[in-house]
Design brief:
Blueprint (H helix, E strand, L loop, with lengths): L11 E7 L2 H12 L4 E3 L10 E6 L4 H12 L4 E6 L4 H10 L3 E4 L8 H13 L38 E7 L2 E9 L8 E2 L3 E4 L4 E4 L3 E5 L5 E5 L1
Parallel strand pairs: 1-2, 1-3, 3-4, 4-5, 7-9
Antiparallel strand pairs: 6-7, 8-11, 9-10, 11-12
Length: 223
């Protein structure tokens, strides 16, 4: 799989929103000293603009302002606050914030650098010329929850929907190709094979056997 990099814009338009004019002036002054940002007004925003909302803490008023920005077409809104807890973080994300940053941890120049450093540490590479965009936030919680119901899928046999050529063990070979959503329960897959789905591609070699259980799980056993 080959991923095409996103073209880098030399200047990212940023809208700075703050109830306190002194706080806004300070943030604008910092951003103007960093290459890659241009400060624009809300009326000058484009599809690629980023809004930076500055506040002391998350509140109902801040949530309302976040919704207004999203309603005016600003799809990327970052909240910069002095203090935030887990409840505030969830409220900010629900109101449309793309990311939340504590003032004590943020400077105009180091936010993107921290992201690229973490990405390189985890994946072995980084694309420092690409624009950094926060696209999701995850929440982990602990507690007593109701047991989720288990739903069995329809039983039957599934034939491969095609074949492809792959290189396995340094040799070119033909492998079966399956679509995950088409697999019935108790299907035994012909190996070697490739199983494709929305979020993953699974390669199963000839030294393994694979089948689908009654709940749709793909089980693989090395021989």
């Amino acid at each position: 799989m080959v991923a095409e990099s996103i073209p880098f814009k030399e200047q990212i338009p940023v809208v700075v929103c703050a109830a306190d004019p002194l706080s806004r002036a300070g943030i604008v002054s910092q951003l103007r000293r960093v290459h890659g940002f241009t400060i624009v007004s809300l009326n000058e925003t484009s599809d690629d603009a980023v809004a930076l909302m500055v506040a002391d803490a998350m509140s109902d008023d801040v949530a309302a302002e976040l919704r207004v920005l999203r309603g005016r077409g600003v799809s990327r809104v970052v909240l910069l606050v002095a203090r935030v807890d887990d409840r505030d973080l969830l409220a900010a994300v629900e109101a449309g914030a793309s990311g939340v940053i504590r003032r004590s941890e943020a400077t105009a120049g180091n936010m993107a650098a921290h992201f690229h450093q973490a990405h390189h540490s985890r994946y072995g590479y980084s694309q420092t010329n690409n624009v950094v965009e926060i696209v999701s936030a995850r929440l982990r919680s602990f507690g007593v929850v109701e047991k989720l119901p288990l739903t069995k899928i329809k039983s039957g046999k599934t034939k491969p929907h095609g074949e492809v050529t792959a290189h396995l063990g340094g040799r070119k070979t033909t492998v079966a190709l399956y679509r995950r959503e088409e697999l019935f329960a108790n299907t035994k897959l012909i190996t070697p094979c490739i199983v494709t789905e929305y979020s993953a591609t699974t390669l199963i070699d000839a030294n393994s056997k694979a089948w689908i259980d009654g709940f749709g799980n793909l089980l693989i056993e090395c021989l």
